[in-house]
Design brief:
The protein has 2 domains: about 55 residues, no CATH class; about 30 residues, no CATH class. The radius of gyration is 19 Å and the shape is extended. The chain contains 3 helices and 2 strands, in the order E-E-H-H-H. The chain has about 100 residues and is mainly α. It has a two-stranded antiparallel ribbon with strand order 1-2.
Amino acid sequence: MLTKKVPLHDLRDNEQWLAPTYGQRCLDKPLPRFDFPESEMLPQTAYNVIHDELMLDGNARLNLATFVTTWMEPEARQLMAETFDKNMIDKDEYPQTAELEMRC
């Protein structure tokens, strides 16, 4: 939506809110686009809202202007999912991760 940083008070009202098209009780009002909502929502609802926004980026596999690989083996994806909570910068806490990094 935005290509440059714009102060919130300069945005039109409809640019400050998300209005997802889900029929859930927690979405009976628009969600703030740039702040956390005042009330809680179900995890699946939060996932749906964020997922839909990220879908606007397009499909990385269709980007022919890059030399970066967008496909990976399922095992690599599984390893990433299993270790995403590690702080890779903290090499003292995760020495084996640091050792694997040195091999690459």
